[in-house]
Each structure stands twice: as C-alpha cells, then as structure tokens.
Write a structure and sequence with these properties.
Strands 3, 4, 5, 6, 7, 8, 9, 10, 11, 12, 13, 14, 15 and 16 form a 14-stranded mixed sheet that branches. This protein has a single domain, classed as Clam (outer membrane lipoprotein receptor (LolB), chain A). It is mainly beta and 257 residues long. β13 and β14 form a beta hairpin. Helices cover 0% and strands 46% of the residues.
Length: 257
Amino acid sequence: MRITSLVVFAGVVAIAMAQQQVQPPTRPSRPQDGGTREVLESIVVPPLPNAPFYTTLETEWARPMAEGGTYTLTNKRHIARDSAGRVYEERWLLVPKGSDVQSAMNFIQIADAINHTLYTCSTFKKICDLTTYQPPQAAVFEGEESGAHPYQTKDASQTLENLGMKTLQGVDTLGTRQTTTINTGVMGNDRPIQIVLEYWRSPRLGFNLLSSRSDPRIGTQTFTVTELDTGDPDPQLFKVPEGYQVVDQETRPPISW
C-alpha cells in the first residue's frame, strides 16, 4: 500500500480509488505556505468470480506527532462482491477517533470486470462518472504472489516471514510479515527507515481480512474485517443509485471531483 490520491479495488479499480480524504478541522481564510493534502489507500479487493461476500471494514490510522505521541483517524465502510465478480465499495471520510465528529460517505464505486465498466459516484454531487474498467494484473495486497521477495542492495533490504494460518471471521487466512529497511541517506534520512507490513490473506476470497502497515514517516495503518457474510449480497448494490446522473467520461475528463 501507499498514500495516493484514491483507494484501489484490487483487480477492480485500475487506479487507486479507495482512499479517504483527511480534511483539517479548520481552513485558513487565505492561502498559506506549506501544509499537505493527503489520502489513505485501503485494502485491495479483486473481481474474483464465485467468491461472493458482504463485509464491514474498519480502518485506523495512528499518525505520529513531531514531539511524540500520535493522533488517530478512523472510519468504517462496506464492501461487497457478487458471484459474477462485480465489486461494490463505499468510501467514508476519516474522522478523529473518539471524537463527536461524524463520518460521512463521500463516494460509491461499482466495478464490473465482465462489462469493463467502473462507476464512481459522488454522494455529495449525485453524479456517477462512468469509465472503462481494466483490472490490474496483480490482485493481491502484498507478498510473493505480487512480486515481493527478499533482497539486499546498497540502498535497502527486504525480508519475508511466514506467520502460518489463522481463522478470522470463520475463514482460513495465511499470514505474512514483510520488513523493508531503507538505509541512511537514501531519502535524505538521518537514520534507517524500517517499514513493516503484516497481512492475513484468505486464498478463497482473494483479499486480506486483517492487514497493517507500520512506517515511521506516516504512522501505523490497520485494516480489519469485523463482519463477514459469504453469501451473495443484495443485487441492488451493483446498480447505479436512484436519482444519480451518469456522465460518460471515456471521451471527456471527470467533472464530479
């Protein structure tokens, strides 16, 4: 995973579109120098046929503060896939953990690998951008199946550790820990940077039921499936929501962002 402009459907979204935008609590009255605008990339769900499910995914992002301590952002969203391999994902805004701030759903995505269509629907604008869907070749989060392998160079090294099997939400998963160390000076860093990815993947469902990424530059991101139904979800999820305008973006740039 990486911080990008949008969250990926694994094999479902050719571009990374499952991220949740993090807004500051207040905005300055006029432009200021500096600052960041960041989003969080979530789990990868491939358009795997004959493996339906409906799930709730909980996200926590504990971010470091300069002088110690962390501040944590959270959200909760639904993901579904039918027996044909169509994938439905909700996108919800991240909010401070334990606060009175209420999250809100800002996007719905519906990916269809059979018809090669991807609808990205803004819940605020009631507009669905229709684009051509081309699943990426890699349909897993990380690990050997996606090309990760142990290595050591003058700039960095990487190790992989098999964590065995664990049952989560009644489903068998395989665990892997991937540790990458970036040597001092490679990125202007004054000490080594160690990035640890740990994930528990279901071979039957084709995605991670539990995954975490620890990176001193961005903090710790944890994605946990808290509810899972492996039956076929409601077919209405895979239809454009009623009252939404569909804009074909194959011949013109998106306007709903």
